[in-house]
# Entry
Amino acid sequence: METLSVVLPLFPQSIEEWVKPLQTGYLVGRQVAAASHSQLSKSSERKELMKKLALLALGLVLFAIPAHGQSADASIGYSYFRLGNSNGLNENGISGSVAVYHHWLGLAGDFGVYHASPGGVSTNTYTFLFGPRLMLKNPTKINPFVQGMVGGAHLTLSGLGSTNDLAFSFGGGVDLGIAPYLALRPQVDYIGIRDSGQTVNCTRVSVALAIHF
# Structure
């Protein structure tokens, strides 16, 4: 959180305006001061995060092996991510989920990676969320769902460092059957990121392919 505490006083809306230091020249001074803090630590931190996400996803997939009254699905697709709704930053990336259901009630894991390069400065947001999902399954192959999740967000700004924050989300979508076991999944989610006692309001709009088991 120390990194953000240095940057945030420059902007009115916390993480929402990370990109504005580029216009003031302040970021250059911070980059020089932070250079000795090592790129290696950031690289190992990202690798460790991805390992944890992979293990969690694998655990959910193994747990999702269908039993009596159970089903499962996995999805992956494109996401538009608005980091900070007001005066925020537009990012693009990939998100996906795995879920296991007992009839209409499911447990889902949702993760995503989103990127932008304002002014040539690389900005990345990673989200990993877990929680219940309710899906209305019916013979029409149009299956709406809603979900509420909690987890974390990892944000990085090249040359300045990174933060790990609590995140939560509410949203939903619909599975539109296009082939046996395959569905098109449009989805919209509100994602809140808690930073220094404040909530950064974010919006994610996704279109994915979902496979049902």
The first helix runs from residue 2 to 7.
